[in-house]
Write the C-alpha coordinates for this entry.
Amino acid sequence: MKALLQRVLGARVDVAGETVGAIDQGLLVLVGVEKQDDAASAERLLHRLLNYRVFADAAGKMNLSLGDVGGGLLLVSQFTLVADTRSGLRPSFSSAAPPEQGRALFEHLLAQARARHPQVASGRFGADMQVHLVNDGPVTFLLES
Protein backbone atom coordinates (compact mmCIF):
# COMPACT_ATOMS: atom_id res chain seq x y z
CA MET A 1 0.00 0.00 0.00
CA LYS A 2 1.06 3.53 -0.63
CA ALA A 3 -0.09 6.51 1.36
CA LEU A 4 0.48 10.17 0.62
CA LEU A 5 0.27 11.73 4.06
CA GLN A 6 -0.36 15.46 4.33
CA ARG A 7 -0.36 17.44 7.57
CA VAL A 8 -3.36 19.73 7.36
CA LEU A 9 -5.03 22.53 9.27
CA GLY A 10 -8.30 21.23 7.84
CA ALA A 11 -9.57 19.04 5.01
CA ARG A 12 -12.81 17.76 3.56
CA VAL A 13 -14.06 15.52 0.77
CA ASP A 14 -17.13 16.36 -1.28
CA VAL A 15 -19.09 14.00 -3.54
CA ALA A 16 -21.78 15.47 -5.80
CA GLY A 17 -21.80 18.69 -3.77
CA GLU A 18 -22.18 16.90 -0.41
CA THR A 19 -19.41 16.78 2.22
CA VAL A 20 -18.86 13.09 3.02
CA GLY A 21 -15.83 13.47 5.30
CA ALA A 22 -14.08 16.33 7.07
CA ILE A 23 -11.46 16.98 9.75
CA ASP A 24 -9.86 19.97 11.40
CA GLN A 25 -6.14 19.75 12.24
CA GLY A 26 -4.68 16.34 11.46
CA LEU A 27 -3.70 14.16 8.53
CA LEU A 28 -5.23 13.82 5.10
CA VAL A 29 -4.05 10.51 3.68
CA LEU A 30 -4.48 9.47 0.05
CA VAL A 31 -4.33 5.65 -0.08
CA GLY A 32 -3.42 3.44 -3.03
CA VAL A 33 -3.78 -0.35 -2.92
CA GLU A 34 -1.53 -2.64 -4.95
CA LYS A 35 -2.15 -6.23 -6.06
CA GLN A 36 0.22 -7.76 -3.51
CA ASP A 37 -1.35 -5.92 -0.54
CA ASP A 38 -3.29 -7.71 2.18
CA ALA A 39 -4.80 -7.04 5.62
CA ALA A 40 -1.34 -7.13 7.22
CA SER A 41 -0.19 -4.39 4.79
CA ALA A 42 -3.14 -2.24 5.84
CA GLU A 43 -2.44 -2.75 9.53
CA ARG A 44 1.27 -1.90 9.14
CA LEU A 45 0.30 1.24 7.26
CA LEU A 46 -2.24 2.24 9.90
CA HIS A 47 0.35 1.79 12.67
CA ARG A 48 2.67 4.15 10.82
CA LEU A 49 -0.08 6.70 10.13
CA LEU A 50 -1.14 6.87 13.75
CA ASN A 51 2.42 7.04 15.08
CA TYR A 52 4.36 8.93 12.40
CA ARG A 53 5.86 12.02 14.03
CA VAL A 54 5.04 14.97 11.77
CA PHE A 55 3.65 17.52 14.23
CA ALA A 56 5.81 20.08 15.99
CA ASP A 57 6.67 19.78 19.66
CA ALA A 58 7.31 22.78 21.97
CA ALA A 59 10.78 23.17 20.46
CA GLY A 60 9.36 23.29 16.92
CA LYS A 61 10.71 19.87 15.91
CA MET A 62 8.58 17.22 14.18
CA ASN A 63 8.34 14.97 17.18
CA LEU A 64 4.62 14.43 17.85
CA SER A 65 2.20 11.94 16.33
CA LEU A 66 -1.45 12.27 15.37
CA GLY A 67 -2.49 10.84 18.74
CA ASP A 68 -0.18 13.21 20.60
CA VAL A 69 -1.91 16.25 19.09
CA GLY A 70 -5.43 14.77 19.11
CA GLY A 71 -5.84 15.39 15.39
CA GLY A 72 -8.26 13.97 12.87
CA LEU A 73 -7.51 11.35 10.22
CA LEU A 74 -9.14 11.68 6.80
CA LEU A 75 -8.60 8.64 4.56
CA VAL A 76 -9.24 8.93 0.81
CA SER A 77 -8.84 6.07 -1.65
CA GLN A 78 -6.79 7.01 -4.71
CA PHE A 79 -5.76 4.24 -7.09
CA THR A 80 -3.73 6.66 -9.23
CA LEU A 81 -1.19 6.81 -6.39
CA VAL A 82 0.11 3.36 -7.38
CA ALA A 83 0.56 4.22 -11.06
CA ASP A 84 3.87 3.40 -12.72
CA THR A 85 5.10 6.68 -14.19
CA ARG A 86 8.71 5.72 -14.85
CA SER A 87 8.43 5.91 -18.63
CA GLY A 88 6.25 7.18 -21.41
CA LEU A 89 3.59 9.85 -21.33
CA ARG A 90 0.71 7.80 -19.95
CA PRO A 91 0.59 6.17 -16.50
CA SER A 92 0.31 2.40 -16.19
CA PHE A 93 -2.01 0.98 -13.56
CA SER A 94 -0.88 -2.64 -13.89
CA SER A 95 0.26 -2.78 -10.25
CA ALA A 96 -3.06 -1.44 -8.88
CA ALA A 97 -5.32 -3.87 -7.07
CA PRO A 98 -8.57 -4.75 -8.84
CA PRO A 99 -11.53 -2.68 -7.55
CA GLU A 100 -12.95 -5.46 -5.33
CA GLN A 101 -9.61 -6.03 -3.58
CA GLY A 102 -8.94 -2.29 -3.33
CA ARG A 103 -12.36 -1.66 -1.77
CA ALA A 104 -11.99 -4.53 0.72
CA LEU A 105 -8.54 -3.41 1.88
CA PHE A 106 -9.48 0.27 2.04
CA GLU A 107 -12.57 -0.60 4.10
CA HIS A 108 -10.43 -2.81 6.36
CA LEU A 109 -7.98 0.08 6.86
CA LEU A 110 -10.88 2.43 7.61
CA ALA A 111 -12.53 0.04 10.10
CA GLN A 112 -9.24 -0.55 11.93
CA ALA A 113 -8.58 3.20 12.02
CA ARG A 114 -12.01 3.86 13.53
CA ALA A 115 -11.38 1.18 16.16
CA ARG A 116 -8.02 2.71 17.15
CA HIS A 117 -8.44 6.47 16.74
CA PRO A 118 -11.29 8.71 17.92
CA GLN A 119 -11.49 11.07 14.92
CA VAL A 120 -11.62 9.29 11.57
CA ALA A 121 -13.39 10.39 8.39
CA SER A 122 -13.18 9.18 4.81
CA GLY A 123 -13.99 9.84 1.23
CA ARG A 124 -16.18 7.46 -0.75
CA PHE A 125 -14.41 4.57 -2.49
CA GLY A 126 -14.66 4.76 -6.28
CA ALA A 127 -16.53 8.06 -6.31
CA ASP A 128 -15.60 11.23 -8.16
CA MET A 129 -14.37 13.22 -5.17
CA GLN A 130 -13.32 16.81 -4.69
CA VAL A 131 -10.69 17.04 -1.96
CA HIS A 132 -10.19 20.38 -0.22
CA LEU A 133 -7.29 20.95 2.15
CA VAL A 134 -5.07 23.48 3.80
CA ASN A 135 -1.67 21.80 3.85
CA ASP A 136 0.22 22.85 6.99
CA GLY A 137 3.87 23.54 6.26
CA PRO A 138 3.54 22.18 3.62
CA VAL A 139 4.34 18.80 5.10
CA THR A 140 3.84 15.80 2.79
CA PHE A 141 5.34 12.29 2.98
CA LEU A 142 4.94 9.18 0.84
CA LEU A 143 4.70 6.05 3.01
CA GLU A 144 4.80 2.49 1.72
CA SER A 145 3.89 -0.63 3.66
Q: What stands out?
A: The chain has a mean pLDDT of 97. Residues 2-136 form a domain with the D-tyrosyl-trna(Tyr) Deacylase; Chain: A; fold (CATH 3.50.80.10). The radius of gyration is 15 Å. The first strand starts at residue 2 and ends at 15.
